[in-house]
Specification:
Length: 764
């Protein structure tokens, strides 16, 4: 935004603020749901007591279905603009997590595509569709890094890794806010993805190092991208509910990261401070949240009831109230642009198809059973094969199953099919016996992930496994197609299936995407954004776990000592894993300095017989300085397309931002030496090591004079690697506090504007 526009917005915000009564100011901080009586809501909007509305009828909007609300929204907005004293428009917020009418793959699947730019385009299309339905605030993206696979909300985010999640979060914010009519609200700040035992809304104990290295980076990216709004999380961090944490909201988010937009609570989170035991009553809850830095109260009503009194009594300073209202007014003034044009349905569908195709991960392909041969009949087995709603996933408030095909429909006409669309083992056996290949569709219903949808077992249903076993008993080639919103334990399925396709909930074009991969029109190229466990008892399971003291069986391979007596410590499929119908080999990693940056390079060659895409990944491990370090940290990735026999060099440029990682106090620093890897997944052993000399470390921010030495080691893979593996854009730089969002503004001096007018100036 240009300086002039920023000044103009500041001036207009001050002008408005100067005209507002205490009650009107509090009204701007009061966000109400549609659950309430609609005429009372309209009256609240008219009187200036309501400043924004959550377009949801239940606190669990992710599972909601309610159509034709657009006229009501239009009416509410008209009342705010034309019938309220100051004509301040409403923020109309909705959860548009992965598409609006056009449903894109769930965010976790989008992350499996390792293509943040495409996800950003999807966000832009979703925002344009939502804007037609009078939405101007989108409660997305969800930037919570998930560290417990049992957590149901894993579906809404971008997996286990902060770097990958950060790249996606940034693209999504930029995509949503590309139009000047829509605000993004990144959520849920902070550490919600670490709730104990994966139990929703519960607490998180996390060190400074963990908070800053795992949970913070995607939010820092969102702030750097200029997100208008940040939602505070329900959970507590180290015993303090985020909603009441001045340290996190005012200190870290608004202070260190320089966030100048709106902090909104989660649904009724302020009221819930009483239930959490943090507040004595609702007035105390309003005080705590407000002083901690929550600007807008989503749905609890505590601000509406008590904030004016708290300010009048001098408990909450008026300056803090003005700061909160100013934040709201700025966003409202900034987003007064024209609504984006509705996207062409075809264009949105094409983006949904590309994203769905790129998100499919081929976990296993024994004997090359995929792609399906053109001639042989296929037994299509499983109730999920004829379901359509399954592909949309949760948080699809405006998607329609009618616009989606089932896998049975998508395969029909492409292969000769014997259908057994139920999970009955007898029928599965009969169908499989007539076919060259049995394709068994497994997974979980769309509403088994999302808010308050944790899973203790992470398993497929017994019925589905019985059908798979039966199919495997009567057919030599068995393919499992898994449609799920999380990483399930597939150990048992893995014993019976020759090939496994992880297809997530792939959105409105999922079935076509699955059919195109099964039939070989498209080469699978997705890679896991999350580790897939063998057993739920392995959780927490994450590729960046610290290396153990003794040579014990671990994520990275067998050791001299067993981690568990009854299970390997390695995941069934590791982070970054995914096969292709082609094959790729990597040359040794080289490291050289290019100015003050480290340039890591490796060649990647296609050894397959067809053109295909590989996601090349770059990992580092800091070493030394008396600390135990994460085994690996993703620091870059590139999607490359290679023709048969073609070779390319992939290059990753790492500066101090990429090489630094927080110490135990949470302070970012460089470390004495590093190992770095380039390969097709996190288990790659294609490694080099290098050392940072003092001169460079001292001048870490882009100074010259770095000294280094490195050696290369290109060793074969470790024994437990699941199977032969295969493999744009340089990794984004980490964001430091001094980098501010595009929307960062400073308050213009407004002393002369403090005169209260009797006839308000209408600034909207
Ligand atoms: C969820 C948020 C969501 C809000 C509004 C809450 O229950 O935690 O993610 O944005 O509801 O629907």
């Amino acid at each position: 935004m240009h300086m002039e526009q920023t000044c103009d917005i500041e001036l207009r915000a001050e002008t408005l603020l100067a005209q507002m009564t205490l009650e009107e100011k509090v009204g701007q901080l009061n966000q109400q749901p549609l659950t309430n009586d609609i005429s009372a809501l309209e009256q609240g909007v008219r009187s200036g007591a309501v400043g924004s509305v959550v377009l949801a009828y239940t606190p669990f909007a992710g599972r909601e279905h309610r159509r034709d609300q657009t006229a009501q929204r239009e009416r509410l907005q008209r009342i705010a603009r034309e019938e309220s004293r100051l004509g301040i428009p409403l923020l109309l917020g909705r959860d548009v997590l992965h598409g609006h009418h056009t449903v894109f793959p769930i965010p976790l699947a989008q992350a499996a595509a390792w293509d943040p730019a495409l996800a950003g385009r999807a966000a832009e299309l979703a925002a344009a569709e939502a804007a037609q339905d009078h939405v101007n605030l989108i409660f997305a993206p969800m930037a919570d890094v998930c560290r417990d696979l049992r957590w149901g909300r894993v579906v809404e985010g971008y997996g286990e890794d902060p770097f990958l999640s950060g790249r996606y979060t940034r693209s999504a914010v930029e995509g949503f806010q590309r139009s000047t009519a829509i605000s993004a609200c990144v959520k849920h700040f902070l550490a919600y993805g670490g709730v104990e035992g994966g139990r929703d809304y519960s607490g998180v104990d996390a060190s400074q190092r963990q908070l800053r290295s795992v949970y913070l980076p995607p939010f820092a990216q969102a702030v750097a991208a200029g997100t208008d709004c940040v939602m505070a999380a329900f959970n507590d961090v180290n015993g303090v509910p985020v909603t009441a944490s001045a340290e996190l909201l005012t200190g870290l988010l608004k202070g260190e990261l320089g966030f100048s937009g709106i902090v909104v609570s989660d649904w009724n989170a302020i009221g819930q401070l009483v239930a959490q035991g943090a507040a004595e009553d609702r007035r105390d809850a309003a005080r705590l949240a407000f002083l901690a830095g929550v600007d807008v109260d989503m749905c609890s009503g505590c601000y509406a009831e008590h904030l004016a009194g708290l300010v009048r009594d001098g408990v909450c300073p008026e300056a803090r109230l003005d700061d909160a209202v100013r934040r709201v007014l700025r966003v409202k003034l900034r987003r007064q642009g024209l609504r984006p044009a509705p996207p062409a349905r075809k264009e949105a569908a094409a983006a949904a198809l590309e994203l769905a195709q790129k998100s499919i991960v081929l976990l296993k392909n024994r004997g090359g059973v995929l792609p399906l041969s053109p001639g042989g009949p296929v037994a299509l087995i499983g109730a999920a094969a004829r379901q359509r709603r399954i592909h949309l996933g949760s948080w699809t408030l405006d998607g329609r199953a009618e616009r989606t095909a089932s896998i049975a429909q998508a395969l029909r006409g492409r292969r000769e099919i014997v259908l057994s669309c139920c999970d009955d083992p007898q029928r599965a056996r009969r169908a499989a016996a007539q076919a060259e290949t049995a394709v068994v569709v497994l997974g979980e219903p769309w509403d088994h992930t999302g808010e308050a949808r944790g899973s203790a077992a992470l398993s497929l249903s017994e019925g589905q496994l019985a059908a798979l076993r039966a199919a495997a008993g009567s057919c030599r080639r068995v393919v499992a197609v898994v449609c799920a919103g999380r990483a399930l334990c597939l150990s048992e399925a893995e014993q019976y299936a020759d090939a496994i396709l992880c297809c997530w909930h792939g959105g409105v074009q999922a079935a076509q995407a699955i059919a195109s991969v099964l039939c070989g029109d498209v080469c699978p190229s997705g890679k896991l954004p999350i580790s897939m466990p063998r057993h739920v008892g392995q959780i927490p399971l994450c590729y960046s776990q610290r290396t153990a003291a003794r040579n014990i069986d671990s994520y990275y391979g067998p050791g001299d000592i067993a981690s568990y007596l009854d299970c390997s410590a390695a995941p069934l499929y590791p982070f970054g894993w995914g096969l292709s119908y082609a094959a790729f080999s990597y040359g040794p990693v080289s490291a050289r300095w290019s100015g003050d940056r480290l340039c890591l390079e490796a060649s990647v060659r296609s050894t397959g017989a067809r053109t295909a895409q590989e996601v090349c990944q770059c990992y580092i491990q800091p070493r030394g300085a008396g600390r135990a370090h994460p085994a690996r940290l993703l620091r870059g990735f590139q999607r490359v397309e290679l023709a048969p026999g073609e070779e390319r060099t992939v290059r990753f440029i790492l500066g101090p931002e990429e090489l630094s990682a927080p110490d135990e106090t949470g302070r970012d620093r460089l470390w004495p030496s590093y190992a770095a890897w380039i390969g097709g997944d996190c288990l790659t052993t294609n490694q080099t090591v290098f050392r940072i000399k003092d001169g460079w470390a001292a001048n870490a921010r882009g100074q010259k004079g770095c000294a280094r030495e490195h050696e290369n080691s290109h060793r074969p893979r470790q024994a437990h690697h699941p199977e032969r593996h295969s493999g744009q854009g340089q990794g984004r730089r980490r964001v430091f506090p001094q980098q501010r969002g595009a929307g960062h503004t400073r308050r213009a001096g407004g002393g002369q504007l403090s005169v209260r007018r009797r006839h308000p100036l209408r600034l909207f």
